[in-house]
Write a structure and sequence with these properties.
single chain; 283 residues; alpha+beta; Jelly Rolls; 2 domains; 8-stranded antiparallel β-sheet; globular
């Protein structure tokens, strides 16, 4: 090897050593050159923290739903599809009309919202139940027209039910109520402290059990309760959504005017945690 070749080799080795030293310094000062972490954030999507991603998943998770109607059937449908697994399809009265204008409750679920016209629109479940005493009623609703039956239990499938209680309804001030006829104590009524006829989507849950009494939740929050209202009127009847006789409770229009999504009745009194999870699934 000539002296010139030796000097060139030493120069190349020195340059490589200097470059390696600089790289090590950079890595020590800025470790993100060798590894990284990432956080995905979206303020309009709660899926990252939600127990359930969709309202359909929430409605069918604990297997206690008597029926669960997404109310997203096609325009003109006569049957309200039941996703509970019980094959308890409901029946649309007054025609089915749907709307998909955002924002919409349960935005990660397919289909639109059921539009109730305030004069003929409602749904009934087909199965007759003998005196249910433990249950949860649940539905998403939106309205700017104060008044109307939201959900309830009546002695008839259609028309005005002579016997009707276990009723969620809105009065002419837009306040939401949950009411039962308790033998020996007459009407037992829970009341929301504010109006919900504000054109926004809301989730209402009403629960009854012989041990805990009645509870009314709006948007996952307990707004009223009664530990003494434990026994509803005893009769065989049908679950109704959007209409039934209301003059026994208020002078408001008995028909609901507005939109609805995901109506369900459960054979258990859902817990606060379960109701919170259902609310989060629809946001």
């Amino acid at each position: 090897m000539t002296p010139m070749s030796l000097r060139n080799g030493r120069s190349v080795a020195a340059a490589l050593g200097l470059a390696l030293a600089m790289l090590l310094v950079l890595i020590g000062l800025n470790p993100t050159l060798s590894a990284f972490t990432a956080t995905v954030s979206n303020s309009s999507n709660t899926a990252g923290t939600a127990t359930y991603f969709t309202c359909a998943a929430a409605a069918t998770a604990d297997k206690t739903a008597l029926f669960a109607y997404p109310l997203n059937d096609a325009d003109g449908s006569s049957s309200a599809t039941d996703i509970s697994g019980n094959r308890a399809n409901g029946a649309y009265q007054g025609g089915m009309s749907s709307q998909q204008i955002p924002p919409i409750a349960c935005p990660r679920d397919p289909g639109g919202a059921y539009v109730l016209n305030g004069s003929s629109s409602y749904v009934y479940a087909p199965t007759a139940y003998n005196n249910p005493t433990t249950f949860t009623e649940e539905v998403w609703f939106k309205t700017t027209s104060a008044g109307g039956t939201i959900m309830g239990f009546g002695s008839q499938r259609t028309g005005e039910s002579p016997s009707n209680d276990r009723k969620i309804y809105m009065d002419t001030n837009g306040q939401v109520h949950f009411a039962i006829y308790q033998p020996g104590a007459a009407k037992q009524i829970l009341t929301s402290p504010k109006s919900y006829a504000d054109g926004q989507w809301h989730l209402v849950d009403a629960t009854l059990s012989p041990t805990a009494g009645t509870r009314l939740y709006l948007d996952g929050v307990l707004v009223d309760s009664s530990s003494s209202a434990t026994t509803p009127q005893a009769y065989t009847g049908y679950w109704r959504i959007g209409y039934d006789k209301l003059r026994d409770w208020t002078n408001a229009n008995p028909y609901f005017t507005g939109s609805m999504r995901y109506a369900a009745v459960y054979s258990t009194a859902l817990t606060q945690e379960q109701i919170n999870n259902h609310y989060t699934a629809g946001r």
